[in-house]
Design a protein that fits this description.
Elements (H helix, E strand, L loop, with lengths): L2 E4 L16 E4 L37 H7 L3 H10 L12 H25 L4 H43 L1 H14 L4 H11 L3 H12 L9 H28 L8 H24 L3 H29 L7
Antiparallel strand pairs: 1-2
Length: 320
């Protein structure tokens, strides 16, 4: 076997310090591309390359690792990972795109449940429309307020961790060593790993933020994300109302069937949202659809039970 030292840099990775070390390549063996992890950023659009995977990674086939796992095909999994051109393999729903979609999805589920609660509480159509629009506005403003608060909190905690690392690095290293030991590492190995990682200040501070404080880095585009959350809430709340009103205007419903159609449409919206929730992470479809339908049924039944209990407690007199 003929062996030689060759350099195999990745065209998709920008090295922050120096190129990857030379590697021993032997004739007759399949050469595998060398990739070097780089600093994670929260802006997916900044990553170079042709294709984008679900987690922000670069690959020609975003579903390759998912399909390999579903088939339990280790050979296909290795091939898919070796073909990845960046620091994160495809198929994990942990990237910016999935997080933003999860925000919209949860807001839509909340909107559909809210409008079902309002309908079961006896609200008229005009009130339902107002609740849908106002609820969407409130959801968007709440998201904007939360993200602004979270960014201020994250900045303060990160500044504190940076200051503590500058002033007493030994104490910070001991904290992380204890944390890794608690999570299952051998103490000597934990000390070695922490000592190495602490030499990279920015990396180590980010690690302390996620591992010690459980705080993720804030995501940009807060106003756009807040607007999307509000729109998702309002859209999911108004779709059942629009559907029932349209069917009524077309003469397809009797006067007393509008509320029933409204509830059925709301449950259908929740079922679709549950299906999307499952598809996002390749999870069982029936389980998530059923869970969302249970949420909808609870949203319909709970106000009726509460109103019945209030009527019983008040001797049957309906209060305002």
């Amino acid at each position: 076997v003929r062996c030689a030292f060759v350099k195999k840099p990745s065209p998709h990775v920008h090295y922050r310090t120096k190129p990857p070390p030379e590697e021993l390549s032997c004739a007759g063996e399949e050469e595998r591309p060398t990739t070097v992890p780089r600093q994670r950023t929260m802006e997916v659009s900044s990553l170079p390359g042709r294709g984008r995977g679900q987690g922000g990674a670069l690959s020609n086939d975003p579903l390759s690792t998912i399909l390999a796992y579903e088939r339990k095909d280790s050979t296909a999994s290795r091939r898919a990972h070796d073909a990845a051109a960046d620091w994160e393999e495809d198929g994990h729903s942990c990237g910016l795109k999935q997080l933003c979609e999860s925000e919209r999805l949860e807001a839509a589920i909340a909107g559909a449940c809210t409008i079902l609660v309002a309908g079961a509480s006896g609200c008229e159509r005009r009130a339902l429309a107002a609740i849908g629009v106002a609820g969407g506005l409130a959801a968007g403003l709440q998201k904007l307020s939360f993200e602004r608060w979270y960014r201020r909190r994250y900045s303060r905690e990160r500044a504190r961790e940076t200051w503590e690392l500058d002033n007493y690095p030994k104490g910070e290293r001991e904290e992380m060593t204890g944390l890794f030991t608690f999570k299952g590492m051998n103490q000597d190995d934990a000390k070695t790993v922490v000592q190495t990682m602490s030499e990279y200040k920015e990396f180590f501070v980010n690690l302390m933020m996620t591992e010690e404080l459980q705080l993720r880095e804030p995501i940009d585009r807060t106003p756009q994300r807040a607007a999307a959350v509000g729109a998702a809430f309002a859209l999911a709340a108004l779709i059942p109302l629009v559907f029932s009103d349209t069917a009524s205007k077309l003469g397809l419903l009797l006067d007393d069937q509008g509320l029933v159609v409204h509830r059925c449409a709301g449950l259908a919206v929740l079922a679709l949202l549950g299906a999307r929730r499952a598809a996002m992470c390749v999870l069982p479809l029936a389980t998530h659809v059923t869970e969302c339908l249970v949420l909808g049924l609870a949203a319909i039944a709970t106000p009726k039970l509460i109103l019945a209990a209030l009527d019983a407690a008040g001797g049957g007199g309906g209060g305002p």
